[in-house]
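re: ur question from yesterday

yeah so i grabbed the chain u mentioned. its 293 aa long if i counted rite. heres the sequnce exactly as i have it in my notes:
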Amino acid sequence: MGAATGAAVAESGRGIDGTGNHVPVPDAPQEATTLTTKRAAPPARPRPRPAGPDGDAGLAPRQRQLLDELETIFLEEGFRKVTLADLASRLRCSRRSFYELADSKEALFLRVFDRYLTRLRDQGAKGAAAVPPDQAFEPYLMPAIDAARKLSATLMQDMTGYPPANAMWERHQRERIDGLRRLVARCVELGLFRGIDPYLVAEVMAASLRRIREPAFLAASRLSYREAVEELYGLLLHGLFRPDARAARPARAPTAKAARTAKAAGTAEAAKAPAPARGTPARRAASARSGPR
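ran it thru and got these structure tokens back, copy pasting raw so excuse formatting
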């Protein structure tokens, strides 16, 4: 068969078998991608809105409410064991609502935790700026004392075991300690404190804050983290003033642990004291005058 005949056969889609009969010629194989149905791409997750300098800028009221409710859950229960499905059920929202705030559960926790710590720093700074330097320590430190009452042992363990959260906590503490150093320096400058080095005070406090959240310390001291923070800040507030400056300051209310210790000591002393004499004072006096019979 000539070239022209072969070309015609190829174009007609038919061939010739060994007996001269025309037979169909199979079509050329097509790409596999045309023989299979492509799967539809999953819907893209909504991109979370950036936190921004003030954390809540650009958020809808419902999103702010979700962050507040998540904060309560995370502070009490930590974040390791809870799931997004569980959170969505408890807060009566969809998981998509969380993905509008963060890309994952861990990122959601970091956003909530950063928002919480930023608020504490702002409260302390505003409180300290509203009063003279010698009165600024309590309003500066009290937000952290109040915060310690909300931080559960579960949260502290989860935070310590998750490097990004632990680094966030360390940055928060460092900023707080830097503010404390500036307050101490100002009080030394004004003559309210003895000539102690502000950097030393700040570093001692920073090291102490790291130490008191270690499980070994809390077990040995038999303090909760809340009590340890309260005692440490009490030591700072009332262990730096000169005697003449401290005498002019109002008396400090005892901490919860100090009150328990004093009560226990008072009970023990009362048990050792002799029993009071019976009868009224007048009868006891008359008996003493009459002498033994």
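noticed a couple things. Confidence is low (pLDDT under 50) at residues 7-13, 31-38, 48-53, 276-286. also The beta strands are 14-16, 22-24.
anyway ttyl
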